[in-house]
Design brief:
The complex is a heterodimer. Chain A has 8 helices and 7 strands. By secondary structure, chain A is α+β, with helices and mostly antiparallel strands. Chain A has 2 domains: 2-111, Roll (Ubiquitin-like (UB roll)), CATH 3.10.20.30; 114-248, Orthogonal Bundle (Fumarate Reductase Iron-sulfur Protein, Chain B, domain 2), CATH 1.10.1060. In chain A, the strands form 2 sheets. A 5-stranded mixed β-sheet of chain A has the order 2-1-5-3-4. Chain A has a two-stranded antiparallel sheet with strand order 6-7. In chain A, a hairpin with a 2-residue loop joins strand 6 and strand 7. In chain A, helix 3 (143-153) runs antiparallel to helix 5 and helix 5 (177-188) crosses helix 8 (228-248). Chain B is mainly α. Chain B has 7 helices and no strands. The longest helix of chain B has 32 residues, at 91-122. Chain B is globular. Classes of the chains: A alpha+beta, B mainly alpha. At the A-B interface, helix 7 and helix 8 of A face helix 1, helix 3, helix 4 and helix 6 of B. Chain B: GO terms for molecular function: metal ion binding. Chain B: It is found in: Membrane. Chain B: InterPro entries: Cytochrome_b-558 (IPR011138), SQR/QFR_C/D (IPR034804), Succ_DH_cyt_b558_Firmicute (IPR016002), SuccDH_FuR_B_TM-su (IPR000701).
Chain lengths: 253, 202
Amino acid sequence: MAENKTVRFVITRQDQPDSAPYTEEFEIPYRPNMNVISALMELRRNPVNVTGKQTTPVAWDMNCLEEVCGACSMVINGKPRQSCTALVDKLEQPIRLEPMRTFPVVRDLQVDRSRMFDSLKKVKAWIPIDGTYDLGPGPRMPERKRQWAYELSKCMTCGVCLEACPNVNSNSDFIGPAPLSQVRLFNAHPTGEMNKAERLNAIMGDGGLANCGNSQNCVQSCPKGIPLTTSIAALNRDTTLQSFRNFFGSDQV
Amino acid sequence: MAKNREFAYRRLHSLLGVIPVGVFLIQHLVVNHFATKGPESFNDAAHFMESLPFRIILETVIIYLPLLYHAIYGIYIAFTAKNNTGRFGYFRNWMFMLQRVTGIITLVFLAWHVWETRVQAALGADVNFQMMENILSNPFMLAFYLVGVLSAIFHFANGLWSFAVSWGLTVTPRSQRISTYVTIGIFVALSVVGIRTIFAFI
């Protein structure tokens, strides 16, 4: 009985970054516990569409296969998520796969998330510790705070929050929720805090924090459950204070 | 536009929506509510507002300039968004979409409302109970006024919610949830005031 069971896929494909997208249907044999990635691997082994025609294998991105790298994100049945944790048994069929169109499509389901990494550079999402001599150990972080910060550090730059955000699109420069939350993470670190103002001023630039329109789709969509909207509201408070400091404060850095 | 002004523009937009435009909205609704006490009371209240000293300066600084800024920048914000309530039908996403839709409806309504009352007053018409009675005797205009006033009130109440987030007053999910209830209360209360006033002219 199991050998007759199949899984149906409707996949949005695109051959070139600038060519027109089209959909192709596939039907593959069912195996217990399969996820979207193992189904795509099956398609790669035998790239034949539902009409029995030989076609090119579907291209997609993947890496860790355990939902920590963020590479395999795609839109599955209308919702952006990681394909490695999308279990076929829990999905309505036909399973519709689309690329996250917020990003430039490279090919088929593969997108270019470079803009997110550029944003992390823009907001200085790191802790500068290099010196010309040994700077010694930094200040210690309370354990409770470390546990709290760990939640924010789970961000894997997967792009799901940008895909869900109505204000991240081709009309706007909004960097999106993920890099903003990283500012909060690095500003909370006892050593990172030393560059707090730099990061806040960076997100007060064009395409920054002010572009958030509070649709709160990001926090609903984040696969890691990161409190993105709390981060954004907290940064709103920090930037309010920072803007007063910038305007009424002294020239002290 | 100059570079890196977006933050200031956006915060100014948020501030002006509440102070003074939102405050004026409440005042306008409350003063008009005199209509429920009869034509006499309404005309007295309207004439008192008209006879305030420095009227044109007050109107320009408290209403026209802030409202124009809020409206024009608001159009830009509304059309920058790519609404996706179909894919993400969450409550806040609906509010996000409605905030933009009611903003545009309110703008259309206000353009008409200002033309029909304030501009006509400048051209010599007397803004009084009878004028509103005439306007609202047309069922189409009645519906237009109901939709316009409710849109404005929704836009203000939901705007208060996002004002509190945008300035970092409500940070935690709990405070944002309570703020949702409070702003729903404000929406209902002001709607009662607005609708009662409109029906007082009929």
